[in-house]
Amino acid sequence: MAERMRVGLFITCVNDTLYPDTGRAVVTLLERLGVEVGFPEAQSCCGQPQFNTGYRSETEPLVRRYAEAFAGYDHIVTPSGSCAAMVRDHHPGFAVPGAADAARRTLELTEFLVDVLGVTDVGAYYPHTVTYHPTCHGLRALGLGDRPRRLLERVRGLELVELPGAEECCGFGGTFAVKNAAVSTSMGRDKARAVVSTGASAVCTVDNSCLMHIGGVLRRAGSPVRPVHLAEILASTGESAGATGHGTGTRGAIR
Amino acid sequence: MSGTFLGMPRRAVPGNRPGAPRDFPTAAEAAGRNTTLLENLRHATHTIRDKRARAVAELSDWPELRAAGAAIKDEVLLRLDDHLERLEEAVTAAGGTVHWAADADEANRIVTELVHATGETEAIKVKSMATQEIGLNEALAGAGITAYETDLAELIVQLGDDLPSHILVPAIHRNRAEIRDIFRERMGEWGRAAPGDLTDRPAELAEAARLHLREKFLRARVGISGANFMVAETGTMVVVESEGNGRMCLTLPETLISVVGIEKVVPTWRDLEVFLQLLPRSSTAERMNPYTTMWTGTTEGDGPREFHLVLLDNGRTDVLADTVGRQALRCIRCSACLNVCPVYERAGGHAYGSAYPGPIGAILTPQLRGVGSELDASLPYASSLCGACYEVCPVAIDIPRVLVHLRERVVEGGEVTVRGSRVRLRPARGHAAERAVMRAARWALDHPGVVRAGQRAAGRTRRLHPRRLPGPGAAWTASRDLPEVPAESFRRWWRRTREAGAGGGTASGDGQREDRS
Predict the structure, then answer these.
(1) I want to staple A231 with a disulfide (CB 3.0 to 4.6 A). Which of A25, B198, B242, B399 is the partner?
(2) A17 CA: distance to closest CA in chain B (Å)
(3) Is B446 in contact with A141 (Cβ distance < 8 A)?
(4) SUPFAM superfamilies under this entry (chain B) (predicted)?
(5) Where are the domains of chain B?
(6) Does residue A12 register a pLDDT over 60?
(7) pLDDT tens-digit readout, B345-366
(8) Residues B360, B399: contact at Cβ < 8 Å?
(9) CATH 1.10.287 for the A7-117 domain, yes or no
């Protein structure tokens, strides 16, 4: 069945530009699970920055582009909880042909793995202590529930440690991070403190924008804790297990 | 001792009473430097947040109750005129008098005249958000009438010449030591003084307040309140509280004046039952609040002989005209959204510049007052849109959705209703640069070739990128490192490795060379 369904990867503008490792990890992971991945190059941004800042009219062309780019795919899979939530919750509100239909076909990566493929053991090996931050959009907008946790628990070598105050926002919030920089930073520092308190060597989420914030605070504080996207952990096998995460010097490297 | 202060008990304390903030981010940043305030807030919000979660978890039908609460409120709002007329009939039939106030000034004038008519110059007050909203105490003071707050926390705020910073716990920003100092220094100016050797033990503080307030309860002939609910079918007012001080004000005076927002009406007692479950668990984390006072008009020989209900609009029917924003009128003022909000916890209530702080304030104030001022236009942005407020709201107000809706109003303008007339709002000033950036970003993102070119340029120059950004970007880099731009975008990698043939060849060269260098 996996061979016959058409799966389109929605990489998201943040991952495309800043975190290509995450995109490569999704491709590696899905192909290892026998899924043929398509990448329609006409895709762009989901429009979340514009929409959440109030620029609805600037959002509409991007909603249109999304619906057109992904027409014909059975599933649209994205390694971003907040972009998936933007598409699912807000694209149908635009008077754009196909927007509601594309929204229905859009899944965050862990939803696709657990609900569509029916797997929780993806054959990954990641010999590190990891703490998981359930991002706000993943937790409250998409309702990912324990899907990420179930996937992490089946990763060989991985020790999962609880993050205190896990359900509290990291303070990123898109343009909130600069419009209310003081509050955003305070939230980020509290989150980083909680991460460090776990003793984990890596903090993992389903969203690189949150990780950019948490990682930015951690790095400014000189912390060695690595931010790493869940997809990169799930894609890791014996050979690549030590070489993932933001700021490990592997970004931009070609596998 | 009771006669020491009958006029306007206002001693000038420069810089004590917080003024209206310029905008939310500035006020929040200032609050963030006050470590005592943050510690008080953090302790209080986390304690009540956890207790609420436990109280709600006890009810297996909470989601159904929540849905019922939202549905009842929506139905009320759809036929608000009918319900209010029914309420007016019932209140009048029960011996009360109903007054209609279109705005704050009118409500203040009505209450002032009613108090004047009694010949009194004092009134005791039940904690009330509506009277905070309209600035009733200040209006009464201007007319020579002293209003005494009797809710313990409101008393602390009033004595401290301060403003409330929380809907349920107005003095949440004060700790015990601060309260002791306020009691010691100020109580005597308003009536019975606190003992000179008062400590910060809660029992002692409560006893000082009890003795101070008791003489007010026994002396006052006019009581002023709000109401949590008004039951239309019988004209019954409902006030829920924890201290019993409210009941003193509602039963002892000869004249009772209640100022209530028009959205507080519920059709029947069956509807009330839903809210009497939702409200206490959401606000104080109690299964049932200690005091629920209900009264219907007047009763011979029992309680106030005169009852006046002032129905307050003050922008509410304008909010009703907005199909997205109107859900804010479902609010039952439980303050669960404040207690769970990470932004409120770090900014404090005063940063919101109105009687309604926190997430609910961020959607209510810009609708009731409009987004004309810099402060009010900044309120819809006082959120990371984390959604915790929506999750805990007992009447399912989708606060993040309304926030985004109001952000659209701020930056794009559009039609709104102001005092019953449709008005076309122009986009707020001060967003020109942001608008240009958003437009440029949208244009680029709608042209993937432009994005590719930008990514290539960024990748090639990545060793030169500064660690600290100028302009608005400095707000990020002042406290957080920037991510490094990779040599090759995902798009380019895909082209180079997956699309062999078409375009793949030309795309491969630079990226590889650069990465190996």
Answers:
(1) A25
(2) 5
(3) no
(4) 4Fe-4S ferredoxins, NagB/RpiA/CoA transferase-like
(5) 40-316, 336-425, 432-516
(6) yes
(7) 999 999 999 999 999 999 999 9
(8) yes
(9) no
**What DSSP letter does each residue of B350-375 carry, written as one string?**
GGG-SSS-HHHHHHHHHHHT-S-SHH
Residue type, B63: P
Question: What's the mean pLDDT when you consider all of chain A?
Answer: 93
Q: Flag if A21 and B386 touch (Cβ within 8 Å).
A: no
CB B84 within 8 A of CB B265: yes
The pair of three-digit structure tokens given for residue B453, joined into one six-digit string: 């070119």
CB contacts, 8 Å: B490 with chain A: 11, 15-16, 20, 23-24
Q: Quickly state the pLDDT bin for B428 (edges 50, 70, 90).
A: confident
Contacts of B107 (CB under 8 A, 6+ apart): B101, B134, B136, B259, B310, B312, B314
Q: What is the pTM of this model?
A: 0.92
- Interchain proximity B475–A178, CB inside 8 Å: yes
Cα distance from A113 to chain B (closest Cα, Å)? 21
Residue limits of CATH 3.40.50 in chain A:
7-117, 129-235
**Which CATH code is given to the segment(s) B40-316?**
3.40.50.10420
Residue spans of alpha helices (H) in A4-160: 13-18, 20-32, 48-53, 56-69, 81-85, 99-104, 109-111, 136, 147-153
CB-closest option in A61, A141, A178 to B442: A61
Contact list, A186 vs chain B (CB under 8 Å): 32, 346
